[in-house]
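Bug report

Summary: structure tokens for CBS domain containing protein differ between web form and batch submission.
Environment: batch mode, default settings.
Steps: 1) Submit the sequence below via batch. 2) Compare with the web form result.

Sequence submitted:
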Amino acid sequence: MFVANRMAKNPFTVTPDTKVSAAKDLMKKHRFRRLPVVDEDGKLVGFLSDRDIMRVSPSPATTLSRYEITSLLAKMCIGEIMQKEVVSVKDDATIEEAALIMYNHKIGGLPVVSSVGAVVGVITETDIFKTFVDVMGLTHGKTRFTIADVGDKVGVVRDLGGIIADCGCNIDSLVTCQQDDGSYEIVVRFDTTDSEAVKKKLEENGFHVSHVVKIG
């Protein structure tokens, strides 16, 4: 799964000399929270969020009139308030890379650039969440089995898959996660009409099924 498949393509952009009031109106009209800022060649030079606009907007306690506030924002340019040290991601990057960048930098969205530096999209935490839901097949009513205390040994996934196949089930998704004690937990999802029978079969073969639930 790549960023290019999940991003919002051909996003609205602004230039550094765009007035703050114009950018604010654009974001309000189209209901988005971020705008890439580009130069005359379409190259990324900044990133604007609704928080940047809120930071320079007068507070509700201000003594300025509505007209004075509008006039103030109409004089201010995006280049004065935008984030200039922009964290971005390439369109051929994986979703996992984008998620890690956002996690490490504690940000909710990234401008997406092509190999030549042109802005081609924006990817947000909402896109990441939707990808997670889609990859896990959460909307399709699968049964989720959590296999705990799995040792780090060759063939575990093969053995697990074989038992599930013997039960007449086809695995839709499988994720492994290392625990603090060094053991692994495996989360596997598939269709089954008899989860108790599958659980019993897994436990007869030495697997510890710690949780079973149908999602979706």
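Above is the batch result. After comparison, the two runs are identical; trailing whitespace caused the diff. The two ends are 22 Å apart (CA to CA). The chain has a mean pLDDT of 90.
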